[in-house]
Amino acid sequence: MHKFGVLLFLIVIYKGFSQESDFKHINFSRADNIAKTYKSKNLNDLNKITSALTNRLDTDVEKFRAIYIWITHNIANDFRLYSKNNRKRKRFKNDSIKLEKWNSRFKNILFKKLLKRKRTICTGYAYLLKEMCAITGIKSIMVNGSGRTSTMDEEDLAYANHTWNLVKLNNKWYLCDPTWSTGISYPEEGKFIFNYDNGYFLTEPKIFFFNHFPLSKEHSLLAPNTPNFNEFVEMPVLYAKAYTILSDHINPKKMYHEVHKNQEFTFEYLLKKSINLRKVKFIFTNSVSERTVKPLVSLDKNSLTLKHTFKKRGFYDLHFYIGDDIIATYTFKVVK
Question: Are residues 257 and 228 in the same domain?
């Protein structure tokens, strides 16, 4: 891309980002019904599939919704393929020639599985979403970066391990992750279960960033305030339900904390939907025990504040739950 093109893209992307709340007035039920009832054995005729999904819908956001829902309800995640690629990339990370050869070979494996078996990993999801959007005249790009889950350590995040999308709707850019919207993999059992998560559909950039660090900072939609990689690694761990319930995670900014005994600590969030405050709880775990604690809870419109006083010394993982849904994890060292 020419320098002028890059500059124009950055100007547009900085000025025009938002979130799903922009489309509260849109009823997605028609788009969802079309997507959930349309079946296709393979992806050999992508134009036909895309047309069937979108030709009865009026707005770009409804067309995008139908494409997104269809992908996330029909394309299974192939964890074995992901694991194989991950092992190869780690093995060849210091050998650029072998890494390039593997990447080239892997593309063929990836797209063959996607087209014939409707199984893929993040690159395939993002590519398919981009291509189907292009067919219907919607601009979408693939974003490469580090995707963080609760089981990853810093070494896993040191190189690009995930791909997601930006999509342009009504002249604004939005973030989405079709891979993580799709379902849950069970590696030990060798199976995948579709379980759609709407939290990664047109997600608020501030909360999306907690688990998505793009290689190009303009793709965060947070410029000029995009945190650097070290700041990203130090952030708390958020789980899938956080993206359904929260529109922002305000405090604490970091995962690890040292506090004094009898010190009060404050947690702050912005909610995107109402919750049952009686179901809010903290679960503390360490190497030998687990205990549940009810924090002090206050709610001002959509601003949720939780407070807890640490009364016992020790080293704890603090898990924030709403009912049975885990939202976030932090680590505390409580000293005298």
Answer: no
